[in-house]
Amino acid sequence: MKGVVFTELVNMIEDQFGLEVLDEVIENANLESGGAYTAVGDYPDSEIYSILAELGKITGLNTKQMLAAYSGCFFSMLNLTYTNFFKKHDCALKFLASLDDYIHPEALKLYPGAKVPGFKPNWVNDNELELVYTSERKMGDLARGLIDQTISHYKEEVVVSETHLEKDGSKIKYTLVKS
Q1: What's the CA gap between 103 and 166, in Å, rounded?
Q2: Are the C-beta atoms of 117 and 133 separated by less than 8 Å?
Q3: pLDDT tens for residues 105-150?
Q4: What is the pLDDT of residues 139-161, one digit of tens each?
């Protein structure tokens, strides 16, 4: 997994829970990297789960809650860093439908070798989009959080439902209906 995912998570933990909690998480997680990350580095996927597990033990939050909080921080970084991605579209559904065609190819230029999730769009009509998420990392809660953050960014009313197409969480269909 690319280091930018880790650097943003580490920043969020420090900002929301303090340096002592961050140090305790890093120390107890037994990370191969030692918890030292650079945005362009590559790190084992297992480390993000170890960090979240340790943070959960300390805070009492479950993984879903932590990924929802993290999605807000990660989205803010993406919006600040890649403003042009968001300006290219006038609504959340169009932006989300462009992830595989525009956003992720651009991300791969910046972070070669990144394993970005898939988001296959299917327009049901002008106000309804089905978005099928696929990822070996099974981080649907993060994907859902980023979808919700995108909707909030565009200040729209959109109802989102999800259907797990694979029990292990590797494939989820999000149905987005704009009102």
Answers
A1: 25
A2: yes
A3: 877 887 777 788 999 999 999 999 999 999 999 999 999 999 999 9
A4: 999 999 999 999 999 999 999 99
Flag whether pLDDT at 47 surpasses 90. yes
Rounded to an integer, what distance in angstroms lies between the CA atom of residue 170 and that of residue 66? 19
The domain locations on the chain are 3-61, 90-178
Long-range contacts of 71-76 (CB under 8 A, 24+ apart): 71/142, 71/144, 71/145, 71/146, 71/148, 71/149, 72/145, 72/149, 73/8, 73/9, 73/11, 73/12, 73/15, 74/5, 74/8, 74/9, 74/12, 74/142, 74/146, 75/145, 75/146, 75/149, 75/150, 75/153
Q: Name the pTM for this structure.
A: 0.89
Rg (CA), the chain: 16
CATH number at 90-178 = 3.90.1520.10
Beta strands per DSSP E along the chain = 118-125, 128-134, 158-164, 171-178
